[in-house]
Amino acid sequence: TLELPNKESNQTPANVRHRKHRRGGRSSQGHGSGRCSGRESLDKALASFLNWQQSAEERAEAPSPSVYLSKRGNSIRQHQGTLQEGFVQYAANKYHVTDNPEGIINLGTSENKLCYDLLHARLTRPDMLYVEPSLLQYSDWTGRTFLREEVAKFLTHYCGSPKTLNADNVVVMNGCGSLFSCVAAVICDPKDAILIPTPFYGVITDDVDLYSDVKLFHVHLDCEVTIKDYRAFHLTVEKLEEGLTKAKQEVAVILMNPHNPLAEIYTPEEMIAFLEFAKRNDLHAIVDELYMLTVFDESVTFHSVLSLDSLPDPLRTHVMWGLSKDFAMSGIRAGTLYTENRELVEALAQLGCFHGIPGTVQHQVAQLLQDRAWIDNEFLPENRRRLKAAHSFLTGELRSMGIPFLDRPAALFVWADLREYLQESSFQEELNLWRCFLRHNVLLSCGQAFSCSTPGWFRIVFADQHLHLGGLSQHLYLLFILCKLYLFSV
Ligand SMILES: Cc1ncc(COP(=O)(O)O)c(C=O)c1O
């Protein structure tokens, strides 16, 4: 079965009947009555489910091997992430409030679309438009000195480093995806593996594998809360140790703080314990702090590992940060790595020529990072205020629909538990539900794209314009109702 409502092809809105929920869950009635646009739109939406002509699997079929490509080229070409079909459809049919109001709303890509006005105002100030000969010439492939110096100052301040960070320890590339790829290429050999707790931001699998044939070894975190595991998806040193005993050829561990997709913020004590685990086992620790300033509850403080008085294993600890999330600029392509390991910096410099950022963009990034008045007085407070409002809007909607989720005041998304809407606990059913949303023009990300061990979890990005979310409220509500109706149908 592919599309949820097509399971029984003779089903029509009129003959949808209720059946017992497989987990004896709630009835579909009584949720926010009056908010759905009524029986008519429900019928319309359900009928459009039934008109779904082409199977999504057909559309997602991988291309046949090309005679023009090597085996590696073919495997790269054929490689399709689980959710690729959604992004292909989205690219062809993007929502736009006036030009394409029926288009697909993208709540699947982790982007902050709340602050374009602030960024536009800052990026069009005269200091941004600057050209001098050196910016148009080849340069240091780890990033221009003026930019690495600004990054070092920026990280010293915003990570709360007790010592001044050194610009020579900074590498700048076109995004953290490139940094993952390059770091994996120089600390691992082909077929080596990197330990990573799941669920995790799944694109890292491709980042380390496509060029370098480095694999990730998953340490599965469980969603169930027990006496021992008082937090869902609780990461502990014991679990990392256990993962390591099962794994072979591990050379590194990836830690994310704040976490994608859980939005979890780990305490300094937890991070020290993870770093000590890495040290005990001679593992590099790649610490991804891409969302470090995207924490929007004043009562919660994020602590960077760079704020520690000393790192357990400084030569094997490498900290990533970039502009994609905290500065809502994923299109600028700027990622940074801080490492005290000079040999690693030298090796990365060799690969940097494939991953450089244009000189003029490096100038803009440096201007932005040094403008503390704008960052502290304009951008960060307003960005946090908008993120908080968007987060409470989405979580309010989820609460009113009775959908459980991890309530964390960080990152750009909410990790929501839609297990109740699966006909059975399987990843195929999870994909069916994901396709059901897509069919109705809402693109989400489902747990299997993050290697989540339990089917039914979805990541929902909330950092979209209020207008979208306003329209979305009814949209999502209708979809959840449809999913419920389907579950209850005979
Ligand atoms: C945790 C995490 N790391 C790395 C990346 C890649 O970021 P960049 O845009 O800098 O390549 C992302 C993007 O979503 C992310 O969420």
Automatic annotation (TrEMBL):
GO terms for biological process: amino acid metabolic process. Residues 104-463 form the Aminotransferase class I/classII large domain. Residues 26-36 have a biased composition (Low complexity). It comes from Nothobranchius furzeri (Turquoise killifish). Residues 1-38 are annotated as: Disordered. It holds the Pfam family Aminotran_1_2. PROSITE patterns: AA_TRANSFER_CLASS_1. The keyword Lipid metabolism does not apply. Residues 16-25 have a biased composition (Basic residues). InterPro entries: Aminotransferase_I/II_large, Ethylene_sulfur-biosynth, NHTrfase_class1_PyrdxlP-BS, PyrdxlP-dep_Trfase, PyrdxlP-dep_Trfase_major, PyrdxlP-dep_Trfase_small. Belongs to the class-I pyridoxal-phosphate-dependent aminotransferase family. This is 1-aminocyclopropane-1-carboxylate synthase homolog (inactive). GO terms for molecular function: pyridoxal phosphate binding; transaminase activity. CDD domains: AAT_like (cd00609). Keywords: Pyridoxal phosphate.
